[in-house]
């Protein structure tokens, strides 16, 4: 591991789209405009995209959703999945217009104004810091399934280990995410195959009761009413948080023009297989009436089938899912801080890169804050997860709102010929984007009726006020850095042949 930190030469305006010399002195074209090294290959980007859509929300949180909504939870995931696909296509259109590591923060800054870029960058940074604390807390809890270890000790070990991995190379980060995602995918596919075997061949303890009829025979598809299904939407959307992480990798993807659209195009089948497919199979094997809020649907299905070792398997999977999320947090926070600093909206110290082209200072500062999870686990080991999980939801959905708003503004300007048109256009725009925004605001409104989720709505105005005051203070000191970046010029119109 290298700890050498070098001053990064002034980076050209990312909006210019020009190649820049990498941190290692590589020739233009071998690095990204921000000075990063393009060390993430297609295989790693694909699995990062897959892993971002599969988290502890599916393996654990779905149990609470099933208990509330019954089989209609499948429809909730189907609708939410369609909204997520719209968000990712909007992000894909922006990425192909200008692939930068700052991603949606950079697009908000250019297309909506400096204030929105400032708020988005710092809010997304906060999202991953809080998520990192949440997930390292959860990982420490999962370890106790096998060993009686103090949660703060496990949290400390995980935080230090993932911090070290993120300081070695971006390729190592990508490789670790590849295998984390592979474990999650293997677990889900295995559950689906075993469940299909039970349904078609009738083997195991669940063979006599397993039936597709379980999806509608116990008080129908909406056993607790449509209202109960609507109240699960915030849990469902929480399951998809971090799917947008693939946008942050744009500055370090080896071939962003090819790899990123391919990863985004796979979103529908990923949602169909991992969420819809697994829930249809699980709820066919086990009636929804057998689920309890604190029970993983995967554990319940394995136990009903007669595989008690399944509980240990699922615990290992959710442990890797939590570590994967924390690892992603270490990765994205350093990049987001550096993007803010490069645009004069954060301390200049964060612009520095290590000898391996990594944002050493930003990652270190973020990891130091994530280590608060160690202290929380030490002080309140039984309530740590509840103290921090609600703050992640609003900040994560803010990034989605900014992606959609930026795409709407970008498409309007591109259609007028003011900006270069993206080669990867969002279908159905602008109406699909407007519908997705309406859905997100509906979810936020529903959170106000849930006492457990309402904490997020209390915290959001405080954070917004803090950011607004900070914005005007920084702008008063350095007004020149808050000018809108100059977008890439659209291509000149083709010359028309002379008329005879």
TrEMBL record:
GO cellular component, alphabetical, reads: plasma membrane
Can you say where in the cell this protein is located? Cell membrane
- Record-annotated membrane-spanning stretches: 47-66, 72-91, 112-131, 151-173, 185-206, 271-291, 311-332, 353-376, 388-408, 429-449, 455-474
Chain positions covered by the region annotation Disordered: 1-33
The UniProt entry, under Pfam families, shows:
AA_permease
Which GO annotations describe the biological process of this protein? amino acid transport; transmembrane transport
Instruction: Tell me the membrane topology, using the record's own terms.
Output: Multi-pass membrane protein
Q: What is its main location?
A: membrane
Please give the InterPro entries that the UniProt record associates with this protein.
AA-permease/SLC12A_dom, Amino_acid_permease_CS
**Protein name (Swiss-Prot/TrEMBL):** L-asparagine transporter
Q: Which organism is it from?
A: Streptomyces qinglanensis
């Amino acid at each position: 591991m290298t700890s050498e930190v070098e001053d990064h030469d002034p980076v050209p305006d990312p909006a210019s789209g020009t190649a820049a010399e990498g941190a290692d002195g590589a020739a233009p074209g071998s690095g990204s405009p921000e000075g990063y090294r393009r060390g993430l290959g297609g295989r790693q980007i694909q699995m990062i995209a897959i892993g971002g859509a599969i988290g502890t929300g599916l393996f654990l949180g779905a149990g609470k959703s099933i208990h509330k909504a019954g089989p209609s939870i499948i429809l909730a995931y189907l609708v939410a999945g369609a909204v997520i696909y719209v968000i990712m296509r909007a992000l894909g259109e922006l990425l192909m217009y200008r692939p930068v590591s700052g991603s949606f923060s950079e697009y908000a800054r250019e297309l909506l104004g400096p204030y929105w870029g400032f708020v988005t960058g710092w809010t997304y940074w906060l999202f991953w810091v809080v998520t990192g604390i949440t997930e390292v807390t959860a990982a420490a809890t999962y370890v106790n399934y096998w060993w009686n270890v103090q949660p703060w000790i496990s949290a400390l070990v995980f935080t230090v280990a993932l911090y070290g991995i993120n300081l070695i190379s971006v390729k190592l980060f990508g490789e670790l995410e590849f295998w984390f995602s592979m474990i999650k995918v293997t677990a889900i596919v295995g559950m689906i195959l075993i469940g299909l075997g039970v349904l078609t061949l009738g083997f195991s303890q669940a063979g006599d009761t397993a039936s597709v009829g379980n999806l509608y025979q116990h008080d129908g598809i909406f056993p607790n009413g449509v209202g109960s299904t609507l109240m699960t939407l915030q849990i469902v959307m929480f399951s998809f948080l971090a799917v947008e992480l693939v946008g942050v990798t744009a500055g370090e993807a080896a071939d962003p023009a090819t790899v990123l659209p391919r990863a985004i195009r796979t979103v529908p089948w990923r949602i169909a297989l991992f969420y819809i497919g697994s829930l249809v199979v699980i709820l066919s094997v086990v009636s929804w009436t057998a689920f309890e809020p604190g029970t993983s649907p995967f554990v319940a299905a394995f136990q009903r089938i007669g595989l008690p070792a399944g509980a240990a398997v699922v615990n290992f999977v959710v442990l890797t899912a939590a570590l994967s999320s924390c690892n992603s947090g270490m990765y994205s926070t350093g990049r987001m801080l550096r993007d803010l600093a490069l645009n004069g909206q954060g301390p200049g110290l964060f612009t520095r890169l290590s000898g391996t082209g990594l944002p050493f200072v930003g990652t270190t500062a973020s990891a130091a804050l994530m280590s608060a999870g160690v202290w929380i686990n030490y002080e309140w080991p039984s309530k740590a997860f509840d103290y921090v999980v609600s703050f992640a939801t609003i900040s994560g959905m803010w990034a989605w709102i900014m992606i959609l708003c930026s795409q709407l503004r970008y498409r309007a300007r591109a259609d007028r010929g003011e900006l270069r048109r993206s080669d990867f256009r969002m279908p159905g725009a602008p109406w699909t984007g407007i519908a997705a925004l309406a859905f997100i605001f509906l979810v936020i409104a529903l959170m106000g009726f849930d006492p457990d989720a309402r904490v997020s709505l209390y915290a959001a105005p405080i954070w917004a006020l803090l950011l607004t005051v900070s914005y005007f203070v920084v702008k008063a000191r350095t007004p020149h850095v808050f000018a809108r970046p100059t977008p890439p010029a659209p291509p000149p119109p083709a010359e028309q042949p002379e008329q005879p």
